[in-house]
Design a protein that fits this description.
With 293 residues, the chain is α+β, with helices and mostly antiparallel strands. Helix content is 20%, strand content 26%. The strands form three sheets. Strands 1, 4, 5, 6, 7, 8 and 9 form a seven-stranded mixed beta sheet that branches. Strands 11-12-10-13-14 form a five-stranded antiparallel beta sheet.
C-alpha cells in the first residue's frame, strides 16, 4: 500500500556527486537528507555507501505538511503541491548550529543528511538540485520551510553543499522529482503512526429540522505558534463554517470542522480565491490531498 521507490533504483543516486567544503548561513526553518543524480532512473548503476541515506530519503515523515500562505519581507508565498516545479535562483547553506532542531514537518535536522528548505514545496518533497556554476547535482529531501529571505530560493544542509561543491552561496536549478515525491507522500500519509486527529464540533442538542451534516471532512486553514494569532483568525473563519482552534504540541491550528465533501470543496476553493490561502484537508482524521474531492 505504500508506493516506494525500489532500493535498486535509489542506490544509484549518490554516485555522480562530488565532495567539497562546508559553510554557514543565517538562521531560519530548515531540513535534512539527500542523494546523487541522473542515475536515479538507472537500474544498472551501483554504489557501496548509499543505503542509509537512500532509506532516509524515502522514509515516511511524521506528517505531510503544506501549510498556509505567509509573507517574507512583504512578499507573499503560497505553499502548494507542484510536481512540475522547476526554478533557478540562489541557494545557501543551513547553519550547522541548527543540527538536532525540529523541521516544519516534525523531522529532526541532521547536518550529515542531504536535505533542503523551500518556501512553498510540500514537506517532504524529493528534488534534484544542480549547481549551475559547476554542473554538479544532488537529490535532496526538502523537509523544512525557509530560507526566510527573498534573495535565496533554497538552503541546503552542509552535507549537500559539499556534494554540490560550493561554500557560501551559489546559483542552482531546483527540479521536483514527481515520482519520488509522490512515493514519499504516499509513505507518509499511509504510515503516520499518530495522525493529526479530526476535531469534531461540540455536541449540541438534537436538531429536528434540516438534514444531518456528514462531518467527515475538516479543512485546516492555518497553524500558528502564537495563540492570539489563531484566536484572531478563527473569528473570521467562522463565516465559512464551524471554526475552532486546536492545540497540538506547541502549535495552534485553525480548523473548520464537520464538513461534507461538497462543503469542504467549496470552503477550500473560497479560501484559495478570496483569502489567498493554501488550506489542508483531513478525512476522518487523516491527511488527504486537498484536490481529491
Amino acid at each position: 500500500m505504500k508506493k516506494l521507490v525500489s532500493l535498486a533504483v535509489l542506490t544509484a543516486l549518490l554516485a555522480a556527486c562530488s565532495d567539497y567544503g562546508t559553510s554557514e548561513n543565517n538562521m531560519g526553518g530548515y531540513g535534512a537528507d539527500g542523494m546523487s543524480e541522473e542515475s536515479l532512473m538507472s537500474k544498472d548503476a551501483t554504489t557501496t555507501d548509499t543505503a542509509p541515506t537512500d532509506a532516509y530519503l524515502m522514509a515516511a515523515a511524521p506528517k505531510y505538511y503544506v501549510g498556509s500562505a505567509y509573507k517574507v519581507e512583504d512578499t507573499q508565498y503560497v505553499p502548494v503541491e507542484d510536481l512540475t516545479y522547476d526554478q533557478t535562483g540562489v541557494a545557501g547553506i543551513i547553519p550547522a548550529e541548527l543540527n538536532g532542531s525540529k523541521t516544519s514537518n516534525g523531522e529532526t535536522f541532521d547536518v550529515d543528511q542531504m536535505v533542503a528548505t523551500s518556501k512553498t514545496l510540500p514537506l517532504p518533497t524529493i528534488a534534484k538540485i544542480t549547481n549551475l556554476d559547476n554542473g554538479t547535482s544532488v537529490i535532496v529531501r526538502v523537509n523544512n520551510r525557509g530560507p526566510f529571505v527573498n534573495t535565496r530560493i533554497m538552503d541546503v544542509s552542509p552535507a549537500a553543499a559539499r556534494k554540490l561543491s560550493f561554500n557560501g552561496q551559489t546559483k542552482v536549478q531546483v527540479q521536483v522529482l514527481a515520482e519520488q515525491s509522490t512515493a514519499v507522500k504516499t509513505a507518509t500519509v499511509g504510515t503516520t503512526v499518530t495522525p493529526e486527529p479530526i476535531v469534531e464540533a461540540p455536541i449540541a442538542a438534537p436538531v429536528t429540522t434540516g438534514p444531518a451534516v456528514a462531518g467527515e471532512y475538516t479543512v485546516q486553514v492555518a497553524a500558528f505558534y502564537a495563540e492570539d494569532s489563531a484566536n484572531n483568525l478563527v473569528q473570521k473563519m467562522n463565516t465559512y463554517g464551524n471554526a475552532t482552534v486546536v492545540k497540538e504540541g506547541d502549535m495552534y491550528k485553525v480548523r473548520i470542522n464537520s464538513l461534507d465533501a461538497a462543503k469542504a470543496r467549496s470552503v477550500i476553493d473560497t479560501l484559495r480565491s478570496n483569502e489567498g490561502m493554501a488550506p489542508g484537508l483531513l478525512k476522518s482524521g487523516k491527511w488527504i490531498n486537498a484536490d481529491s474531492i
